[in-house]
Amino acid sequence: MRKIVCFGPGPQFKGGISNYNTALATSLDVLPDTEVHIVSWTQQYPAIIPRDFIDRSSQKSLLEGTDIQVHYLTNYNLPGTWKKTVDLILELEADLVIFQWAIALQGLPMGWIARKLKKKSKAEILFDVHVLVQKEGSKLDTWFTRYGLKTVDTYIAHAYQTANELKAMFPNTSFSLNEDGKREVKGGKHIIKLYHPVYDLYKPDPDFNVAKEKEALELRENVFLFFGFIRKYKGLHNVIRAFKKVRETRDDVSLLIVGESFWKTLDQKKLGTRIKNFLFGIAKTLFLNKKDNEQNYRPLELVKELGLEEDCTIVNRFVANEEVNRYFQVSDCIVTYYLTATPSGVESLAYNFSLPVLATNVGHFPETIKEGFNGYLAEAENIDSMAEVMLKYIDHPIPSQQVDEAAQHMSWKNYAKAILAPFENKVLRT
């Protein structure tokens, strides 16, 4: 029996890393002779961060029909729970522990836990690295990242850019790099270059009435979708400006914006929120390299400023699991005009609904988007180029069959197979 622990946010949390950790666990759970546990945070970040990270909307469990056990245990702010996390994983006798790494700030508890497991357990320690170089750079990021990742046996990188960043982070370390999951080099570390698998947590509804739902959402014939948390690096301000240019030439287009404003999840009038905002502001001033405060990012105001109120439908809230299909099934393509990019859960969601992706030519997008086959690429920070790509998609739509074909190799089955490659012929605990 292969015993696997997926460490990261459990399904009660919002966001892509929670979805990812849940999807990974379910993909491993369906394999024979595998016992899977999710060991989750109860609090992922310092208590001063003014944001609600819990999914309070979804009624449907993404673990329905599985044998996965979830253990909500690890509190960033309580080091005693870090030790309890180690003790639990040792008690479970895990053969493989997969950590989800996306933010340097978590390097302190995750690095501490990984070190203890390395000393006391025979389990392979694997870090699934979503983001290495942080989108909002902190003066402490390098230290946190080095501490968090130094003792790791194996890394998964979803883009060659991330693999190169890992090599640069540890220049005196010998790395092997492959795409099949083999860990054959002795005395070094391993990087498995994979991809962000296509989500299958959210299923298209075969009885979905597109025309009826378009009417309910006041959408026109051609619908461009922006989906996910509203954060500056995702470039919604550029999407709206590019759409304005498209709207000036066509009257059959709509922009559907669906997502929660990242920093507006708490009641701003409450004393506790005001205290958190104050303390967090001081911390950002001291440690962030950038002076720009993302908490002041309000791209939705552009809709009114540019006179697009009748052309945009805005769902400015967190979307429950059971609602996700609605917005993808009424849309024709998804727009990801990011300023910087690491492999995107939103892109993966789009492929699950056979939607082409319009993206900027940054980060991993040139690795996953084949021009004119499963999407189109625009020049970053070039509004004219972005508008041209949107118009190109209307004039030259991409068949869903091509999107499905491009996504075939990005399955969770292949991903799980690479992760478990060393265990295929290994006698494990029974």
Reconstruct the topology from this structure.
Blueprint: E1 2-7, H1 16-29, E2 34-43, E3 69-75, H2 79-92, E4 96-101, H3 107-120, E5 124-129, H4 141-149, E6 154-157, H5 160-169, E7 175-178, E8 189-193, H6 210-216, E9 222-227, H7 236-249, E10 253-258, H8 271-287, H9 301-305, E11 312-315, H10 324-329, E12 333-336, H11 345-352, E13 357-360, H12 365-368, E14 375-378, H13 383-395, H14 400-407, H15 412-419
Parallel strand pairs: 1-2, 1-4, 2-3, 4-5, 5-6, 6-8, 7-8, 9-10, 9-12, 10-11, 12-13, 13-14
Please provide a brief summary of the model.
The chain is of the alpha/beta class. It has helices at 16-29, 79-92, 107-120, 141-149, 160-169, 210-216, 236-249, 271-287, 301-305, 324-329, 345-352, 365-368, 383-395, 400-407, 412-419; strands at residues 2-7, 34-43, 69-75, 96-101, 124-129, 154-157, 175-178, 189-193, 222-227, 253-258, 312-315, 333-336, 357-360, 375-378.
